[in-house]
Fold this sequence. Notes:
The complex is a heterodimer.
Chain A: H1 2-12, E1 15-21, H2 26-32, E2 38-40, E3 49-53, H3 61-70, E4 76-80, E5 92-94, H4 100-112, E6 169-173, E7 185-191, E8 194-202, H5 213-224, H6 231-245, H7 252-262, H8 280-290, H9 301-305, H10 313-317, H11 322-330, H12 334-340, H13 349-365
Parallel strand pairs in A: 1-2, 1-3, 3-4, 4-5
Antiparallel strand pairs in A: 6-7, 7-8
Chain B: H1 2-25, H2 30-33, H3 36-39, H4 61-87, H5 89-112
Helix pairs in contact in B: 4-5
Region (Disordered) (chain A): 117-140, 345-376
Amino acid sequence: MAIAILRRLAGAAPAPAFPAIGAGMRAAADDLFLDGRLIRADSIRHARILLVAGPVREADQDDIRRLHDQMLHPRATLWWKSNPVPDFAEPATCDEDDPVAAIEAIHRALIEGARDSEPDILPNEPPNPWRGKGDYGQGGEGMMGGTPYGRPMAMTDDDLRDGLALDAYTAPFGPFLPMLPPGLKLSVTLQGDVIQTAKLLRPPSAQAEAYDGTVTALRALGRFLPILGLEAHAVRCLEAARSLSAGKPIELAKIRQFLFWSGALAAIPSGIGMVEDTDVRMRVERWLAALDESPTGGLDGSATMSPLKPARLVDLLRGREWSEAILIVNSFDTDTLISLAPVEAEDAETEGRAREDGIRMDHEGHGTHAHGATGT
Amino acid sequence: MALEGLAGALVIAFVAASIATVIRLAPSGSAESLTEPQKTPFLGGGAPDTHAWQRYHIRYYPMTLLFIAFEMEMMFMYPWAVVFVEEGGKAMMEMGMFLAILSVGIVYGWREGIFRWQ
């Protein structure tokens, strides 16, 4: 009796969903989670429902399968205007513009037990065999040897910042990491929180930009501000963008005033992510300036539409701390990011190495990366 | 005497029964029931190549060194002020030795560039 009441209450609670966003669905997904009946889960572990929004690229199918298996039970997947990936048994699809009702129904059915939790797709085994080998069963010989939990230990590597070579950690990030644009997948080698090298694995999915420059700026701010910990301001920007797209008048000057006094600009380190003499802070200032202009004026076309061939995203991220790198990535709109992130062939590796050496020398010329510098 | 023994036995039995109940009712080892994909860190779809057990540089360590050097100084100086009134020159000498030892840490920090503002 009591359990039944608790179940019904749990089923009526906001549904935690994790969005895996495909091409052209980013703005729609952002708007969707302004609804109070949903909670946007920042990690798949906090989600009950995997919401796949938009078409899934063939390369991303494995990532969707892994995301699905990382969810805890009871779990479900909803394919919103999407093509279900093979291996998903009886996929639930939704082609409506507003899938909130469908998500709510699935969530309630899951919690109340009317719908079974989805089974695993990937095999339940470690990536490499390891159990029982070595003195402590760690999977190998020696202190640094072995493959605990099926993964080899990290090995020491050179360090960019102060030369203290410790263990480098290499992992793929994306394509559905909330702090990166959807589709962007990077292989990043980290020493602590400093990016030693970044390699582009997959470019971001193309998104339809709004014709209205003010809406574009508001949406960009709505994605950028949560990184600085200003979620309430981000929600205000996204709500304004939605109202403006629907033709409702909003007080742009007020939003701009709020953002100015939030201290967001002061929280962005200056001089990071330099492309064509503009850094991250200048690009955010440009979005703020766009809130002042007339709605039909749009953003400064020369800055957003020009082909940025000489700069590469992976070069901008090198030597940066993780928090700075996330600010850099999110300071570009999707089109610019795609032009900054060309997918390279494997034989371009040697050429890339030469470029990287050039950049390292350049960094040593500046004070910020000098040897022995501490407290940065 | 026998009554005290009985009371003690009752307390022990009650505690043991409570612990057994808690263990029995606790969700059985959630880490055990996780599958291999659930054990991998959330990276937005990918799986890491290496184990996350690694050594990295704690960058704030010179700052903690400096904090401890100055904080220890202040911690001992307040009670020392009381002792100084009674003891006089002897206490002064002892504090001088103490500060000399602590200042080695500060000098080391100086060499490491703690005082360089950036």
